[in-house]
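Chain A, query sequence.
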Amino acid sequence: MPKATYFGYSSFIIEGSNVTIAIDPGNKLPSDESIIPREIWPKIDIVAITHNDPDHAGKAKEIVKSGHALLLAHEELKDELTNEISLHLIKPNQELSLLGVKFKGIPITHGTLGISLAKITSVFKKPQVAKGNVGFLIELEGRFFCHLGDTLLREDWEEWRPDILMIPIGRATTMDPAEALDAVEKIKPRVVIPIHYNLKFGVYRALTVNPQEFKNVLDERGYDCRILSEGDSIVV
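Chain A, predicted structure.
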């Protein structure tokens, strides 16, 4: 049965019987330290990035160049990834298969950038602050994983009913917890994993949220929500 392991930020390793997928293998900002431990890199077969921000894609090229992995990214990133001979392109609502794994592009919208410094909060009003935004609905060995990257709530999401939904709740460039609850009601997953929240970038921390409060509401609504720490895994 497939296993998903969380490494913080939006980074996951999904392992099947014969294939290993890395999603959003970025940097631990402000450093260039890899979110996904380097000792895992040699077994990665597919790298999928939801956009080109360094905390999501910072190690994608290096992983591909150091081993045998294929790289999957939005077609908007074609020009900056042209030297990656294993590059495969996707766009929202497009489907493709790599190494027996089915991917569908999910439309997502990267949001505003909000930061909290001491007790001062400021928000830079930018509707789109990243390039190449695409989420993924992944079918692996009969199980479905939905990863939404960094995104605001969208009206065009569907009732995909994935086994696992990896959903951002951090507010800084994504939905807030209330909006993420609305997204869960739209998508109807079996298991919900909140991601990309309470991140620290250098001297400041992005707007904080309480994942336990998010989980409590989902529990009351009959959903299975798992709060994972770095290195925690779930088998589906």
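Residues 177-187 form the longest helix (11 residues). Residues 115-127 have pLDDT under 50 and may be disordered.
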